[in-house]
């Protein structure tokens, strides 16, 4: 169960984060936290874990909704007389 949570969190936070600096920072902080918590057993009880997951998920949700919003916009046809 623990390994499944860590893998799912990594996929959620790292997937598609290359183009957004804020998401890269959150993913890097989460990876560092996972590495650090290999030395102690309080990973699931650490509030930083849940804060990073929440912020990373919110950023991922916001970035995944942007392409849909852009695609939903109706393009205005160009005027034959110019701008």
Count of helical segments? 3
| DSSP summary, beta strand count | 0
Largest sheet properties: none
Our estimate of the beta-strand percent is: under 5%
Low-confidence stretches: none
Q: What is the typical, i.e. mean, pLDDT?
A: 76
Q: Helix/strand-derived class? A: mainly alpha
Please give the structural blueprint:
Layout: H1 2-14, H2 21-37, H3 47-72
Task: Walk me through this protein's architecture.
This protein has helices at residues 2-14, 21-37, 47-72. The chain has 83 residues and is an all-alpha fold. The chain has one domain (2-65). Helix 1 (2-14) runs antiparallel to helix 2 and helix 2 (21-37) packs antiparallel against helix 3 (47-72).
